[in-house]
Structures are given as C-alpha cells and as structure tokens.
Amino acid sequence: MDFVLVDWLRILCGAWLVPHLIGKGLHYEKAGGTFEAAGFRPGKLFVGLTMVAEACAAVGLIFSIYPRIAALFGALVLLGAGYAVVKINGKNWRWQKMGPEYPIFWALVCLLTALV
User: Fold this and answer.
1) Phi-psi sector, 39: left (phi>0), alpha (psi -120 to 50), beta
2) HSE-up (13 A, CA, CB side) for residue 102
3) Which of 34, 15, 28, 41 is nearest to 84 (CA)?
4) pLDDT in tens, 10-38
5) What is its main location (predicted)?
6) d(Cα 20, Cα 5) in Å, to the nearest integer?
7) Full-model pTM
8) pLDDT of residue 1
C-alpha cells in the first residue's frame, strides 16, 4: 500500500474518535447528564445519536469508506462537543480551564480531510 500523509491524517482522525465513542458507551448515564447540562434534551437520545455518528465517522475515516462524508460527521460531532464545553464551562479557551480548543481543532482537522 502506498499511503500519502493525508491518508495517515484521515486514519488518525478516525482512530481518535474510537476512545471518544467507547467513553460514551461505558458511561452512557453520565454522558446523558452531560448532554442535558449542555441543553441537548433528551440527553440519552443525543448520546445515542452522537455514538452512531461517531461510529460512522470512525469506520469511514479509518477504512476510507465515503471518507469526506465521514469527516463531516466527525466534524459535526466535534463542533457539538466544542459547543457543549462552552455551554457547560463558560467562554474559556484553554484546556486548563476546560476550554473548547481541542474539539474545535479536531473538528477543523476533520473538515480539512474532507476537503482534500
């Protein structure tokens, strides 16, 4: 196989979604409460929808199955996570203050992989 750097970036974007997805699954009840706190009601429904979107994004990005659509799914989930972080923790930017910079950065990287 002849991989170019953007392929590795696409695969990494998908792989990094996997622990995010597993964390929601292992802590479904708590995640539902977090979604509720961010204004996504009913929380458990949004957790389930997010898990489906993350799973589709991860599989699509890792195995290059409709990778552009998968990258958009991933970006939407991560932008939602960034919004939730701001809604719950306030308008802090840095991670030390529970800011949204990480999910926003990750969402932008997913969007860039969708454009390439």
Assistant:
1) left
2) 12
3) 34
4) 999 999 999 989 999 999 999 999 999 99
5) membrane
6) 23
7) 0.90
8) 57
